[in-house]
Amino acid sequence: MIYSVFIVDGATNLKWSYFANSIRWNHLYNNRLFSNNLFLYSNYHYKYSINEGLRNFSWKSQITNIGLKADYDLFLTKNHIKYGLQAMNHFFSPGQTISNDTSINVKIVKLEERKALELGCYISDEIKLTDNFSLSLGFRFSFFAHIGPGYSYNYSEYSETFTDSLYHNKNKLYNAFSSFEPRLGISYKLSENSSFKMSYNKMVQYIQLLSNSSIGMPTDIWFPVGIF
Predict the structure, then answer these.
(1) In angstroms, rounded to a whole number, what is the distance separating the alpha carbons of residues 30 and 36?
(2) 214-224 residue pLDDT tens
(3) Among residues 155, 149, 147, which one has the least CA distance to residue 167?
(4) 61-66: Cβ within 8 A, 24+ apart
(5) 143, 160, 174, 175 — which has fewest CB within 10 A?
(6) Which residues pair with 92 in a beta bridge?
(7) Nearest 5°: phi and psi at 35?
(8) Count of CB atoms situated within 10 Å of the CB of 63
(9) Residue range 134-144: average pLDDT?
(10) Residue 111 is part of a domain; what is its CATH number?
(11) What residue numbers bound the domain in which 168 lies?
C-alpha cells in the first residue's frame, strides 16, 4: 500500500493512496503445459481538502478494480503456444464534494458513479522456423461494457448537447465495445550478441484519463469509455 499527504499550505492538502493485492496459483500439468492463475484487487483514492473560511470542503475520488486472469503455456517441439482469459470489474467514483464544517453551506456535488465489465481472451504461437529465425503470431479479443444502473445518452450530430437519454436497470450491460487485436512478430538472430526484431501489435484502452493539466496529477480522473 502506498499512502501520501501533500500539504500546499496550512489550509490546503492533498491525500492519496494506492492499495493492490493479488493471489497467484501456478500449476504444472505435465512437462509441456503450465498455468498461471491470478486474482487481482486494486484501489486508488484521493482527497483534496480546502479549510479556509467559507471555502471549507473536500473533494474525493476513487477507482477500484477486481479481476481474474488465467494464462497457459504449451510447449511443443517447435512451437510455444500461449493462451488465456481475463475478466475484470471496474468501479468508478469520479468525484464528490464533502463539507468539512456543518455550519457552512457547501453545495454538494456528486458525479455519477459507474461500473464496468472488461473481458478478454488471447492466443499466440511462437514458431521456431530455423535455429536463427522465429515467427510469432497471435490475436486478442476484448470486450467492454458499462453495468447498470446508469444512463446512456444520444447526442446531436452537429453539437455537444444530448438529445435523449435511456436508463438501464441494475446489472444490465450497455454502451458495449469490442475489438479484435492482431499481433505479429519476427526475430532473426544475426550473431551470438545481436539480433533483428520487428513487431506489430494493436491495443485498445477502454479506460480514459480526464485531466485539467498538461502533466499527470493525483487529482486526474479515470473514467470508462462511452458515448458522452
Answers:
(1) 14
(2) 655 656 778 89
(3) 149
(4) 61/93, 61/94, 61/95, 61/96, 61/219, 61/221, 62/93, 63/90, 63/91, 63/92, 63/93, 63/222, 64/90, 64/91, 65/40, 65/41, 65/89, 65/90, 65/91, 66/40, 66/41, 66/91
(5) 160
(6) 63, 114
(7) -130, 150
(8) 20
(9) 96
(10) 2.40.170.20
(11) 2-224
Q: How many domains does the structure of the chain reveal?
A: 1
Report the distance separating Cα 120 and Cα 224, nearest Å.
16
User: Residue with C-alpha cell 456528486?
Assistant: 110
Mind listing the pLDDT tens digit for each residue in 128-138?
A: 998 899 999 99
Residue type, 35: S
Compute φ and ψ for 199, nearest 5 degrees: -150, 155
Residue that has been written with the C-alpha cell 505479429 in this structure: 184
Arithmetic mean of pLDDT, 82-103: 87
Share of the chain above pLDDT 90, in %: 50
Question: How many C-beta atoms surround the C-beta of residue 84 within 10 A?
Answer: 19
Q: What is the 3-state secondary structure (H, E, C) of the chain?
A: CEEEEEECCCCEEEEEEEEEEEEEEEEECCCCEEEEEEEEEEEEEEEEEEEECCEEEEEEEEEEEEEEEEEEEEECCCEEEEEEEEEEEEEEEEEEEEECCCCCCCCCCECCCEEEEEEEEEEEEEEECCCCEEEEEEEEEEEEEEECCEEEEEECCCCCCEEEEEEECCCCEEEEEEEEEEEEEEEEECCCCCEEEEEEECCCCCEEEECCCCCCCCCCEEEECCCC
